[in-house]
Design a protein that fits this description.
241 residues; alpha/beta; Rossmann fold; binds adenosine-5'-triphosphate; P-loop_NTPase; AAA+_ATPase; ATP-binding; nucleotide-binding; ABC_transporter-like_CS
């Protein structure tokens, strides 16, 4: 990538829960405007890392920097959007009311608020369901609403933990279309996944296994380097079985 500017710097990050070391000396740069995928099996440490990048958790040692500021930093909260793995929604409220609640938190008010709510619901194709209570939503609809909430305040960095889990292939494609659109607008996206075909859609990937970053590169580079034809095989070749 030409003229790449790092907006996320992970420096010697380790994390332990008691005696269990979950991240081990992770070093990584993520560049402005790229879609960066963190790929690894369940329990590899992906969520633990992205939680730190979103300011929700701290490392045992090492530092994370976002826009050159050491995390966690409250100043950055408006510049980062985070979608957790499990949906944090108010079930008894409608989608609109959920969005209004989060919009208020981000200081979005009046017409700007209602406009933005409409825009994000259109993007995730839920506009027709905006007034329904969340308790009537399917799992996939809840995921899409969580995505809409993460997009509300137009963050420069969007961190998505398994964004398309429980979403059918057709909608998954349209959500990836939305990701590319955001990238075109200059947003940096960090996406965790263990779906291999999704990994291929990222600009660059970090392969993570048992808390260690075992390789970083474009999908093409990773395949070339391991002389394989799929990300799955490349992952295995790097010892990520
Ligand atoms: N708060 C916690 N206390 C103790 N152990 C934890 C805690 N959070 C995570 N872990 C452990 O850290 C390891 C990594 O978990 P993490 O959720 O980061 O993995 P992951 O790669 O995101 O997996 P998945 O794809 O299943 O979400 C797991 O063994 C998990 O049990």
């Amino acid at each position: 990538m030409e003229n790449k500017r790092s907006c996320v710097s992970v420096r010697h990050i380790s994390k332990s829960f008691g005696k269990h070391q979950v991240l081990e000396d992770i070093n990584l740069d993520i560049y402005e405007g790229e879609i960066f995928g963190l790929l690894g099996p369940s329990g590899a440490g992906k969520t633990t890392l992205v939680k730190q990048l979103s300011g929700l958790d701290t490392p045992t040692s090492g530092e994370n920097y976002i826009f050159q500021e050491k995390m966690p930093d409250l100043k950055l909260i408006n510049r980062i959007g985070y979608m957790a793995q499990s949906d944090a929604l108010y079930e008894e409220l409608s989608a609109k009311e959920n969005l209004q609640f989060f919009a208020e938190l981000y200081g979005l008010k009046g017409t700007k608020q209602s406009q933005r709510i409409k825009e994000v619901m259109k993007l995730v194709q839920l506009l027709d369901h905006i007034n329904k209570p969340i308790s009537t939503y399917s799992g996939g609809m809840k995921r899409r609403l969580s995505l809409a909430i993460a997009l509300l305040h137009e963050p420069e960095i969007l961190i998505l933990d398994e964004p398309t889990v429980g979403i059918d292939p057709v909608l998954r494609k349209s959500i990836w279309g939305a990701f590319y659109e955001l990238k075109q607008q200059g947003t940096t996206l960090i996406v965790t996944t263990h779906v291999m075909d999704e990994a291929d859609k990222c600009d660059r990937l970090g392969l993570i296994r048992e808390g260690k970053l075992i390789a970083v590169g474009t999908p093409q580079q990773l395949k070339e380097e391991t002389k394989t034809t799929s990300i799955e095989d490349a992952f295995l070749a790097y010892g990520g079985a």
